[in-house]
Amino acid sequence: MVWSSTEYENFYFNIWLFHGFGLAAKIIEFEIDSNGLLTNLIAFNIGVEIGQLLALSTILILISYWRKKSSFLTYAYSTNVLLMTLGFMLAGYQLFGYFNS
């Protein structure tokens, strides 16, 4: 399946929108003074983006280093399965907490 540029943009926009709704839902739960709310939200989002860039940069460096090792082909598949399993477990944990709180 080959996606066009527009399909990619729509996909990522929907992911971004879904993520934003999650943040908005959490913020609504707190009784935050509206004074300075926009500034705090922007600062929070910039902090999250910086954290994601640092984490992904670290992961990229580590994986690039690991790809040069002979063990990469041996363990790449099982590592992906483990990471996906942990990701699904974390998503399930979060959804369980969301629907049962």
Describe this structure in words.
- The chain has helices at residues 5-29, 37-67, 71-99.
- It has a domain at 1-30.
- The mean pLDDT is 84.
- The chain is built from three helices and no strands.
- The termini are far apart.
- The radius of gyration is 18 Å and the shape is extended.
- The chain is mainly α.
- The longest helix is centred in the middle third of the chain and has 31 residues, at 37-67.
Helix content: over 70%
Overall pLDDT score: 84
Give the overall silhouette. extended
The termini sit apart by: 39 Å
Characterize the main sheet. none
How would you describe this structure in keywords?
101 residues; single chain
Secondary-structure topology with pairs:
Layout lengths: L4 H25 L7 H31 L3 H29 L2
Question: What's the quick description here?
Answer:
With 101 residues, the protein is mainly alpha-helical. The chain has 3 helices and no strands.
